[in-house]
Amino acid sequence: MGCAESLRVQAYFDGEVDAVSAADIERHTEHCAECRALLQDLEQTRTAIRRDLTLGRAPPELRVRIMRALDQETAVKTPRPNGWGRSTWRTRAFWAGALGGVGSAAVAATLAFFLLSPSLTNPLLDDLVDAHVRSLMPSHLIDVVSTDQHTVKPWFAGHTDVSPVVADFAQQGYRLIGGRADYLDHQRSAVVVYQHGPHVINVFSWAASQRALPNNTTRNGYHMAFWKAGDLEYSAVSDTGWDELLGLVRLLQDLSARDARQ
Amino acid sequence: MDDKRGRFEAEVLPHLNAAYRFARWLAHSPGDADDLVQEAILRAFRGFDALRGSDVKAWLLAIVRNCHSTALKQQQRRGFVPLPEEHDAQDGYAMIATTPDPESVSIRRDDERTLERLMSALPEEHREVLVLREIEDMDYREIATVTNVPIGTVMSRLARARAALKARWLKEAEGERRGVR
């Protein structure tokens, strides 16, 4: 690159010169073999780099990490008790969940939704989503594996503070796959686990409190339905569609109503 | 969501992919790149109120670059010696290749590997202007903003970087012909 015009030729190639200079440089390259070769080199390098070296997009897990970090950043003004430690743990649980074998497509969808969902202020919603995600970790989904309500229900009596309605709705598409004890809102809650197609639906239940239940909502891509039956409060959480989720909710509500009449 | 967060997500996060790509070329491992991007986004968020003007992408990439230099300085102070970029080209390639997406694996050819390795082995000030110009398609003024040097310096660095890459490519080809590599 001995030609004094080489930087101008490069600027021409990069689209950094005005029309007058461009015409000037084009005239120059007609006479200067070195600058013609330079133009060719520049073109080859650009083509090769643009063809081969695109590292693509930020991975979804990085996006999630960043949204979490921004959540913490914006939440600094109103910290919750142990806010940092809990959040860190939660992120890890989230990832353990995401990397688990259950429904990786669902997890991908979750990640996409994650970016759209606003910050949470209700800790119960956080807890529910976390517990649902935690359940997707290998071997944490179910403590008692059974499709038989008569096995699951007594198991809860020994392991949780509540006794929720349990039934297998396989005929309606909601297969009972087991139960689990979880810790939620400072009390032991019972979780009944259903499978609907490829989706896992966790039905949480805990002793009703004076506090108003949240409205049905979507958090991090998980739909969450809330209802109260008798002295228990329920929440069904899943990445399945609303219609499917509410279908199970109706079945459970009917079941509670029948139990109450007996 | 408060207003600042909303505006930040709308104006800055569209450039997250660019920040990530840039970080991958600056950092020594994909993990470092992730940390770098996260740190940069947080710093950007904190400084978002002070952002004037419309060139958000250049502003964000400048922050990525600053975070990178800060991290490097900290490592050096702690006695951590980064991989020598000039000589350990193989490591440079390994850094890029550890987490490729499945598609890119199947279509990856020898040429691409070579080009990645050669790019990774360029001195940082050459590599960054090449990445900003050819991959991020930034103009000289934007590159000057990101790298914090005058436009004249951008032009001369770019010329040297392109020449260096070509020279290494030719050397590589020659080596292959001799069966050395």
Topology, pairings included?
The complex is a heterodimer of chains A (about 260) and B (about 180).
Chain A: H1 6-13, H2 19-31, H3 33-52, H4 60-75, H5 83-99, H6 104-114, H7 123-135, E1 144-145, H8 149-159, E2 175-184, E3 187-196, E4 199-207, E5 217-219, E6 222-229, E7 232-238, H9 242-261
Antiparallel strand pairs in A: 1-2, 2-3, 3-4, 4-7, 5-6, 6-7
Helix pairs in contact in A: 1-3, 2-3, 4-5, 4-6, 5-7
Chain B: H1 3-11, H2 16-26, H3 30-46, H4 56-77, H5 89-97, H6 102-107, H7 110-121, H8 124-135, H9 140-147, H10 151-178
Helix pairs in contact in B: 2-3, 2-4, 3-4, 4-9, 5-7, 7-10, 8-10, 9-10
What does this structure look like?
The complex is a heterodimer of chains A (262) and B (181). By secondary structure, chain A is α+β, with helices and mostly antiparallel strands. Chain A folds into two domains: 6-52, no CATH class; 70-261, MucB/RseB, C-terminal domain (Phosphorylase Kinase, domain 1), CATH 3.30.200. Chain A has helices at residues 6-13, 19-31, 33-52, 60-75, 83-99, 104-114, 123-135, 149-159, 242-261, and strands spanning 144-145, 175-184, 187-196, 199-207, 217-219, 222-229, 232-238. Chain A has a seven-stranded antiparallel beta sheet, with helices on both faces. In chain A, strand 6 (222-229) and strand 7 (232-238) form a beta hairpin. In chain A, helix 2 (19-31) packs across helix 3. In chain A, 31% of the residues are buried. Residues 78-120 of chain A have low confidence and may be disordered. By secondary structure, chain B is mostly helical. Chain B has two domains: 1-84, RNA polymerase sigma factor, region 2, helix turn helix motif (Rna Polymerase Sigma Factor, Chain: A), CATH 1.10.1740; 86-181, Arc Repressor Mutant, subunit A, CATH 1.10.10. Mean pLDDT of chain B is 81; it is low at 84-108. Classes of the chains: A alpha+beta (262), B mainly alpha (181). Chains A and B meet through helix 1, helix 3 and helix 4 of A and helix 1, helix 2, helix 3, helix 7 and helix 8 of B.
